[in-house]
Amino acid sequence: MALAEFFNSLINSLDTGSGFWNPLVWGFALLIVFLVIYILRGAGKTSYKKGTEQTKPFLSGNPETSKESMHVKGENVYWGFVKSMKFIYDRFEKMHNGNVSDYILWFVIIMGIFFLVLGVI
Amino acid sequence: MNDIISFISAHLPAFVVAVPLLGAFLTPLVSRIGDKSRNIFAIIITGLTSIFALLLANDVFTNGIRTYVFGGDYATGQTMVRILFEIDAMNAFMLIIAAILPFAAIVYSWGFMKEQTGLDKYYTLILLMTAGMLGMMMTGDMFNFFVFLEITSIASAALIAFWTNKGNAVAAAFKYIVISSIGALFVLFAIALYYGQYNALNMAVIADSIPVEMGFVDKIALVLLLAALAMKAAIAPMHMWLADAYGRAPSSVTVVLIGTTLASLYAGFRVIFTIHGNQLEQALNSWTIFGYEFSISLANMVGILLVALAVLSIFIGVFMALKQVDLKKMIAYTAVAEIGYMLLAVGAAIAVMGGDLEATAGYTALKGGIFHILNDALDIGLLFLVAGAVYYTAKQTSINKLGGLARNMKYTTVFFLIGLFAVSGLPPMNGFASKLMIYESTFQINPILSIVAILCSILLLAVFVKVFYSVFLGPKLPKFATAKEVPISMLIAMGIIACIIIFIGLFPDIVLQNVVTPAANALNDASSYIAAITGGI
Lengths: 121, 537
Description:
With 121 residues, chain A is mostly helical. Chain A has helices spanning 2-10, 23-42, 67-70, 79-84, 86-95, 100-120; strands at residues 14-15, 20-21. In chain A, strands 1-2 form a two-stranded antiparallel sheet. The model of chain A has no long low-confidence stretch (mean pLDDT 85). Helix content of chain B is 74%, strand content 4%. Chain B has helices at 2-10, 12-31, 35-63, 89-112, 119-138, 142-160, 167-198, 203-209, 216-232, 240-248, 251-275, 298-323, 327-351, 361-394, 410-423, 430-445, 447-472, 488-506, 508-524, 526-534; strands spanning 66-69, 84-87, 283-289, 292-297. In chain B, a hairpin with a 2-residue loop joins strand 3 (283-289) and strand 4.
């Protein structure tokens, strides 16, 4: 009986307030999606030849550079996003200046706001 | 045998703190025998502590609130002059986190720290930190809480500076100890105010003594505690110390530091829900504008303040993480954002508090927020262990200098992917379950909150996709041609946390029903916490 209850609890859905979440149902749905993808892939062309010219990277006719220089550095990923958000980052970087006195200043400011809101108002 | 079991069972709360505390002071002696003996000893001590903590949590979830008095027998209604531990379902929930993290950290340390010297001090400090964290989570006494807070802070600062050859680590430790000391001083000041007002240090007694209409001194004590604990919990804009401390400490230390940060967050919730639980629904003030009367309760005000800080934490955490080039600092900023998610949910629950909370979206938000505390500890913990593994192999954490490590570190890559899915709130990992609860409940309270939370979660995914691409994918870099997978102890530690993440992800309802919901109910039921000490209110 206890074992049956335990297995029942394993398949229970999570009540999220206005909906539910069941990872096992989701997993089953995902399995079906993968199956469909696999079937579709099976219908594709089979002209791929390993180790031939077609497997070499094509860089618009330019020679392949060293592996280290070809790897895009982490800093360059999302460069455009960071650049467009420069006005926010400039302010954030001023906040995160590494000065512990400024850290304490933020604590005093927040305590002051708490005091005004909870103690005075 | 039965006598031993019943003795251990009766004194479980004491054992949970005493075992790591005693272990800490015995470690230097055991180190004299040999390094292997010391490592095994530390694993046994944290393993025993975890077992005791889990047994205690199970006992509380099964039989209700547990009180334990040091220094003599205790009868209900007696003057509360002794140190007292009080463990309800919320404390028990926190004990589960404290049972997992230090054990994983110690197992991980075996391989991760093997090249280091001064490891007797390292293990001593990490066990002291564990004892302090567990004490913070279990004590029912305000002054005792301050003592444990100080033990944790001092041990943490020393561990953050453990790699003393790196100046940045010492600077981060200095900042941490300054922040911690100032925070602890304000906590002590608030405790002194309570003591002066009510002649009591016991949390339940103070909660019982504060009148429903709070006085000015009570308000000051509340403000001091909230601000100090918010700083200790790294809530923006008082979070800057966290990026330094988490980023510079050894990864094994950072994992335990996560637990101590969450212990401060728990303490903040305890102050709001239990110590000032009776005043939450009382009107702070009322105004008459154009003949209409407006009033605002303490719950509304505290809730709004917490939600504002939560949104700021999520926003700053995610944006700063996106720009970092240091892997550990990036994860540290993610941790700030994750704390924001917990605070958002609990703040939203407090803001709508009034009448029957269980009938409102606030109850789901509260459960989602508490659930996310556990998930955050595991997800961020796993990511820090992976960052440590990357450092162990590549001797650097700059994502600009890393790449192609998946070819050499297959298991670590899998663990990173699990952590990535979990922390970004992708199904079927644990982070998705708690974030879904937070999104749905906050949407009903205020859709804008939910939209901000979802957008920032997408950015979090972007952050870790960047890390995955930069560190693990790409061609095998010549400088890492001979890089190898990390030692087995590090893989075991990451594996333990990854397995728990997957289990919670696949069966979230078991955790919600058996652990999270009792914790939310306990937090929301101040009267039971108080009655367990005072004998009824």
